[in-house]
Amino acid sequence: MNGGLQLILCRLTRVRPGFMQCAAIEECPAGKEAIAHATPTTDRNCTSCGDGKFSNVNTKFVCTTTSICDVGKSVLKNATTSSDRECNPCSLGYTFTDAWNMPRCKALTPCGKTAFAPYPPSVSANRICNPVTMCAEGAKFQTVAATATTDTFCQPVRVCSPGSYQSAPPTVTADRQCASVTSCVLGVTFQVEAPSASADRQCANVTTCGSGSVETGKPSLTLGAFGCSGHRRRLCSSVDERGRPSPSCE
């Protein structure tokens, strides 16, 4: 076989001439790619894939950029020069990742009893916890309790209007209760204790003049200028044998 015929056969069979015999052209293995293709007189030249690239039969032995495990996923298997990176999805409501190529999914932050999560968590973001609002004691009270996803709702405490008093103080979960101030009835009852912001007016019955006594002064709703000091009662006098009154306080 002459050299010209051998060169033709080498070209057809993809082998190279050398010392009167042909050799198989080198195939680039996984993890490498060709940087110079074979010619009738030179072999194929292969080089390793660089960082962040790989090659195998699926890429036709061309170095290809490795896949990225996006947010919401973690790395299941790291990439090599001959295999791509494999990813694993995080579990919605339990774990998340907020950066690329995380080695593992992270557990969601629990809010606890003093915080609530206004937005549902995702596989790509941690749970956001906001502190539960505390109703200001004496100024506001709770109308709706906080839940795992909603805040406490507070309402201003009622202010008792003139002519009323606080019959029950506000609590964390209940409004102030107000009631109308009691009015003493002239001639029937009189005030023994004035009302306050948190107490009703106290009234007592007016004294009734009994047998053998006469009324010497009219009763008043408040302390009058007549009668015994410190009393708000009808004034009566005893009558002597001649029908003349003998002053006394009942």
Provide a short characterization of the protein structure.
This protein is mainly beta. The protein is 4% helix and 32% strand.
Number of domains: 4
**Unreliable sequence segments:** 1-9, 223-234
User: Can you count the beta strands?
Assistant: 21
From the alpha-carbon coordinates, what is the Rg to the nearest angstrom?
A: 51 Å
Q: Termini, distance in Å?
A: 156 Å
Determine the number of helices (DSSP H or I, runs of at least 4 residues): 1
Largest sheet: 3 strands, antiparallel
Proportion of beta-strand residues: 25-35%
Order of helices and strands: HEEEEEEEEEEEEEEEEEEEEE
Biggest sheet strand line-up: 19-20-21
Average of the residue pLDDT scores: 83
Broad structural category: mainly beta
Query: Helix amount, in percent?
Result: under 10%
Choose one word for the global shape.
Answer: rod-shaped
Overview of this structure, please?
With 250 residues, the protein is mainly beta. The chain has four domains: 1-65, Tumor Necrosis Factor Receptor, subunit A, domain 2 (Ribbon), CATH 2.10.50; 67-129, Tumor Necrosis Factor Receptor, subunit A, domain 2 (Ribbon); 132-180, no CATH class; 182-248, no CATH class. The protein is built from one helix and 21 strands. A three-stranded antiparallel sheet has the order 19-20-21, with no helix packed on it. Strands 1-2 form a two-stranded antiparallel sheet. A two-stranded antiparallel sheet has the order 3-4.
